[in-house]
Amino acid sequence: MAAEQMVAEYIAEAFGTYSRRRSVPEVRVCFYPFVRLNNTIWLRNSIVRVRISDILADAPADVLRALSFILVADLYRRRAAKRLIRLFEDYVECEEVVVAIARIRRERERLTTGSHQGEVYNLKQIFARLNRQYFGGGLRQPRLSWSRRRRLDLLGWYDQELDEIVISRLLDEHQVPGYAMDYVLYHEMLHLRHPMQIVNGRCHYHTPAFRQDEMKFDRYEDALKALLQLR
Which of these three, 82, 108, 134, is where a domain ends? Predict the structure, then answer.
């Protein structure tokens, strides 16, 4: 059985545990070459889309099942069983996987252009304007860069280790509204104000305080709708 199909079945099983839905939504799974060990899930229009780091493509079935339950639990703001969390953490923290992650990350870090100047948008100028508007000019500026590829899976990310905000070149287009571009960079800037927290051994990047500040963006709903159209 292909890994994607296996994960899709585990995701459906997890929905039976954590969701009150009478039927399981359609599940679409892909393994993606994320820069980091990222795994994402979102539910829109009765379709569950799951993207898992391709580093885990060859992981044992029980590890993929544990991850599937963790993702669906997070989707419903619940906590997966401790044994599943421990199983997944033990796997990704083993020496072989840690070495593989480090090697792949070094290779994929080259995916950024290293330049803040795009064909349409200048990230430094936008950062400075948003910094004044929303943060009183108090945020320090990390390295700002466009991705080399037009990434749809990840429109922006903040790499704490490299102290770098990277924005997908997909957004460096005239047809992308300025407020949508602003929102993606604003979201990543919030990671500077709200650093990752570790609670009960788990990493939390989007805390309640983070989400509260996120909705302070002037055209929050409009930006989400515009970005959704890109997908």
Answer: 108
For tokens 């803040």, what's the residue? 116
Kindly report the pTM of this predicted structure. 0.57
Nearest to 28 by CA among 15, 9, 13, 56: 9
- Exposure pattern of 176-195 as b/e (b: 16+ CB <10 Å)? bbeebbbbbbbbbbbbbebe
Last residue in a domain, options 52, 83, 108 = 108
Contact 223, 217 (CB under 8 A): yes
Residues 122 and 97 in one domain: no
131 and 89 inside one domain: no
How far apart, in whole angstroms, are the C-alpha atoms of residue 223 and residue 184? 9
Pair of tokens at residue 73: 């639990």
* CA-angle at 224, arms to 221 and 226, nearest 5°: 110
Q: Which domain holds residue 44?
A: 3-108
Backbone angles phi, psi at 209, to 5 degrees: -65, -40
Which three-class secondary structure state does DSSP give residue 156? strand
Which of the four pLDDT bands, split at 50, 70 and 90, describes residue 188? Answer: very high
Same structural domain, 10 and 48: yes
| Rounded alpha-carbon distances, angstroms, from residue 77 to 44, 71, 122, 208, 213 | 16, 10, 36, 11, 19
pLDDT digits (tens, 9 = 90+) for 204-214: 678 889 999 99
Distance (Å, rounded) from C-alpha 222 to C-alpha 214? 13
